[in-house]
Amino acid sequence: MKSLFLACERWSSGIAMALACAMLAIASALGMFQILMRFVFESPAEWTEVLIRFSLIWMIFLAIPMAFRQGAMISVDVLYRWSPPRLRRVLEWVVCLASLTLIAILIWWGWDYARRASVQTMAGLESVSMFWAYLAVPAGGLFCIPGIVGNLIDPRRMELETAQ
User: Fold this and answer.
1) String of b and e for 20-51 (b: at least 16 CB within 10 Å)?
2) Residues 67, 143: Cα–Cα separation, whole Å
3) What is the dihedral of CA 12, 15, 20, 26, to 10 degrees?
4) What is the 3-state secondary structure (H, E, C) of the chain?
5) I need a surface site. Which of 13, 37, 69, 137 has the fewest CB within 10 A?
6) Per-residue pLDDT tens over the stretch 2-20
7) With contact defined as beta carbons under 8 Å apart, do 89 and 81 qualify?
8) What is the pLDDT of residues 93-134, one digit of tens each?
9) Contact, 148 vs 68, CB < 8 A?
């Protein structure tokens, strides 16, 4: 069961990271397009600024699950290093439960904000609802849950291994 869950977690975190990388590529391409249009053709495309902003927001919320999975999100390094092994496990559970609580709050309020903003449109892109921008919060939160639980089941302390 543990290996099946970790396989599903690897798959979901991989999908989230691939989408985050795609959002970074989109933001970069739109930034280059905006520079080209503004300074070469002297005809700025206002819609690119809005899409860059929202693709970066989506990128951040889709990359957070990987940070949780690697144990780099909520770090209690000093306590973890100074604690005996038994207390370390308690600390891991406390961090996991606190993280899941935070993510549950983000999913709940993120979905509420997305629903409320569905009647608004994006400035510069009047045909696109703000729902799609706010949806990044609960979507990223849903991707975080397997990463948080995966880090509890199979901890990776990458920041501790590379710390000086």
Assistant:
1) beebbebbeebbeebeeeeeeeeeeeebbebb
2) 11
3) -160
4) CHHHHHHHHHHHHHHHHHHHHHHHHHHHHHHHHHHHHHHHCCCCCCHHHHHHHHHHHHHHHHHHHHHHHCCCCCCCHHHHHHCCHHHHHHHHHHHHHHHHHHHHHHHHHHHHHHHHHHHCEECCEEEEECHHHHCHHHHHHHHHHHHHHHHHHCCCCHHHHHCC
5) 37
6) 899 999 999 999 999 999 9
7) no
8) 998 999 999 999 999 999 999 999 999 988 888 888 999 999
9) yes
In the block, residue with structure tokens 């983000």:
106
**Hey, what are 150's tokens?**
């995966």
Whole-prediction pTM:
0.86
Asked whether the beta carbons of 121 and 130 are under 8 A apart, the reply is yes
